[in-house]
Specification:
- The chain is built from no helices and 19 strands.
- About 3% of the residues have low confidence.
- 36% of the residues are buried.
- By secondary structure, it is mainly beta.
- The two termini are 21 Å apart.
- The strands form three sheets. Strands 1, 2, 6, 9, 10, 13, 14, 16 and 19 form a nine-stranded mixed beta sheet that branches.
Amino acid sequence: MLTAAICLFTVGMDLPSNPSFDYSGVPSLPGVALKSHGVQIDMSKDKTSTVTSTTVFKNESTAPVTVTLTIPRRRVGDDKSGNPTFTVDAKWDNLPMTLAMPAMALSGEKIGPEEYFYKNDLTKNVTFKAGQTSSLKISYTLPFGRCGYEQKQKMTGYAFDTSNMIGLLSISYRYGGPTVFHLPEAFPKDWGWQIGTKGAFVRKENFKPSGELTYITFYPGGFDNIGGGKRGGGGGGR
């Protein structure tokens, strides 16, 4: 069983207490139209979230362009957490991509009394012919993050801080496994989340992100020890 709540916030605002988690989000490609983005966060496996997404971009200009693709790798934790290092599998038009890391990773930015934000994004230059449409497929797996009193709660999240307008957006959190203890509550309420015992889903058209992060918090089912938690030095629930 899990008790869940989905919230949406800009990093540095309205974070749950005692957060420690890794996350990614919508890939960004400035100057190119983002026609659709579909993402599924599958939480059915014990202690991990598997994230898969498909994004369709189109060069709507009459000339070829070369632009920089950015895939977010983010972490919220304490002053000892360090930068995120999780592996992202990416395919461009069904062909594997080799992604580059920044020459120098940035240090953490303090965003609360004890909370720090870390950023270590992946990039790749891509070239479009005039009018070309291409797809990007991404997959990665992260351990559940931690939050709440003594970090007894688990969490997972997904960011919407791309500069692109998203023509068609769909996002789903799938709980899988046992029935939820209570149906989750979704924010903001005007997003029109469809919430059930197996997951939460929303679909939007012509959506302009403004730095939001969706996330879901829950108490794990089974016989996990939910007492005696401590703030951890690492992110991603380790």
